[in-house]
Amino acid sequence: MSDKPAVSSVQKGDVLLVLVDNPPVNAISQAVRAGLKEHVEKGMKDAGTKAIVIACEGRTFVAGADIREFGKPPAGPSLQELLNGMEAGDKPVVAAIHGTALGGGFEIAMACHARVAVKDAKVGLPEVKLGLLPGAGGTQRVPRVAGALVGLDLCTSGRMVPAAEALKFGLIDKIVDGDLREGAIDFARTLVGKPLKRSSQQQQPFDAAAFDKAAADVLKKSRGAMAPAKIIDCVRASTHGDFKEGEAVERKNFMELLVSDQSKAMRYVFFAEREVLKVPSLEGVNPRAVTKAGVIGSGTMGAGITISLVNSGMPVTVVENDQAALDRAMTRFKSTWERDVKLGRIDQATMDKRVALLTLTTQFEALADVDIVIEAVFEEMKLKKEIFGKLGKIVKAGAVLASNTSYLDIDAIGESSGRPADVIGMHFFSPANIMRLVEVIDGGRSAKDALATGVAVGKRMGKLPVVMGNCDGFVGNRILAAWRKVADMMIEEGAYPQDFDAAMEAWGMAMGPYAVGDLAGLDIGMRRRKEFAHLRDNEKRDTGAIADAICALGRYGQKTGAGYYKYVDGKRTVDPLVTEIIDKVSKEKGITRKPISADQMTSWVHATMVNEACKILSENIVSRPLDVDIVKLNGYGFPVWRGGPMQEADRVGLDKVLATVKDVHKVAGKGFEPSSALEWMVANNKKFADIKPGDLKGK
Ligand code: 3HC
Ligand code: NAI
What global pTM score does this model have? Predict the structure, then answer.
């Protein structure tokens, strides 16, 4: 903590420059609110001051309310009271924006009489990502200035709006090329003596039909999240009546969200996403230098990984089996970037630079001088071993060799390279240029700085790397395999895929498991079941019969027009034939089918996730419950407003979760025994929130 005041001011002739200084992001703590009130009031009262400019020290304009203060007793002055007072003042106040003016920070700016910004500044209202809504006039002032549709978009998407776009919306008055503060002071002087533009007093034309349509789209996408519906109410309220009435609607809804479990969970996720990067086992370990990368295989995953690496500015050498595969890959790279150009995300020059960063070859020798190689060939141990054997000899000493394998043993792959300390897992998710998660896997003999390099490269690619140990399926797919088995078991016992998918989607999952299966292709699982049939433990319940019967008809999912569902014109529909197959399998297994409630489906799935996660924590594959939450949230469509399976378990109560695990075990049998770590937690009255890194190791 610095001794400097959070807010100070300096007189610049007839303009008072008020400066916020609350590192790292100038969050609005009580001291910032009190300081802003004091200095703005000082400027308003001082006869020599004709205008006021609010600017920030450090890397950014105010990035929002101090999230750590939520849930604590409120300490005045409130932001609303401060902003209403400032806006009502009779001297112009101008916000000088650099970095990101977010949430309460953008609300401060909107309560000013004008806003100027540097070219690369961004503004936004990301409260929705914390399960909240803008609570200091943002849902009222933004639509009053930019229109209800823009207001709805900003408040419900939480997206950051570049300065140029904000200028177009009228949310920013001027982009300053030179010195921001000088520019803001000059601009403030032009407002002196003129009628002040108060955002709360503006009104834009309102197209009710267009708003209703946009609101319906938002609700469709909100998947059980509470905040979007409340935001719609608030923005609608801004379109009629006076500001005070709208503000009251906003306040009521904000307070309801502030105390909700959803917002609590999403605030937890905000901090967990930052905490996950502070890996206890890698503290103080420096990554190796990486300036060039190689990718082996340019299929679904290799192509996505390459795009993501190149987008981060990294030169990439791609190695494939043959020229035809390389040509296909180049077409895919170019079409991805051409689309970005078309959508205005990048310009043609950036695309050309990206293409120039690529070297496409069939020669492994071209990888000799890269600093990291990411392998993404077929999921076959023999092939991976052969490739890592070559890499071990060809690639320069000190380079990191990573495999994108979904399930295979990283240490065995490392062994084949002859330099297992350099070998790590980097398990990306499809589509790899979009999905944020990357599991960074310690094979057991991986060097710490090799793992730190995986994390650093992942971060550079804009990903969220989670470091973990080596086990079948690692964290994400291992938990997925466990609960998918329970789902298949419930299908044998009485549920149907469409009921299961509907229950999971209503619970907030991005997609139900059977719709996902059809999308990914059912043949992959079928081949795995055949390949590993000889390893199957006959004491474990086998749940593959329904999927095998469906695949036996050549129904591999969407790509063949049918799987668990039938696809007519791309539309998913229930197929009576599948119902017949399911009933037949149940009968053959001697199961009397009985209805299963949606609540049972979701609670059994959730309890199974938590139970498997506890086994993973006990084996110290990861050391913190938050590692599991971040994996499931970012790679597996877990609803963010539930905060991840572990956070959700704390909400449900671990005793209840354990009771459900025991019910699942009775039906699922071997492999689904309650985790001793979960039993220990219940016996000791613990919550996952209490667990420190490593607390569950060996429990
Ligand atoms: N409150 C408290 N701490 C915050 C914070 C906030 N609003 N925003 C960031 N921090 C902390 C982070 O936890 C992190 O702490 P750490 O170093 O101890 O891990 C540190 O500041 C730096 O943050 P990042 O690592 O995220 O830094 P980046 O440079 O990557 O990103 C940022 C900067 C874009 C500003 C990003 O931090 C961000 O998006 N912050 C949150 C913005 C937000 O959600 N604002 C709305 C708050 S709610 C609100 O304003 C309600 C109002 O309507 C009443
Ligand atoms: P894919 O079949 O789409 O691509 C594999 C590519 O590897 C092909 O283009 C093939 O030509 C190339 N290849 C095969 N042998 C090669 C060799 N000797 N040298 C150079 N290139 C060779 O497979 P996909 O889906 O991209 O999977 C790759 C890896 O990523 C697998 O290990 C898989 O388990 C894993 N993975 C897949 C995910 C997915 O959703 N598809 C998700 C996460 C991981």
Answer: 0.94
